[in-house]
Amino acid sequence: MVYSITGLIVLILDIIAIVDVLKSSMDTVKKLIWILVILLLPIIGMILWFILGKKS
Question: SS3 for 45?
C-alpha cells in the first residue's frame, strides 16, 4: 500500500514537472531533453528540473 501511494505521488510530481517543462520558454530541443531525463529517471529527473532546469 505504501509503495503504491509513493509511486502515485512520484507520478503526479513527474507530470507536474513535464507540464512545467512544456510551459517554459526554452527551445524545443532542450524541452525534449528535459522530458526524456524526467521520464528515464523519474525521481532524480524531477528533482534536477525543479533545482536546475527552472533557472535556465
Answer: helix
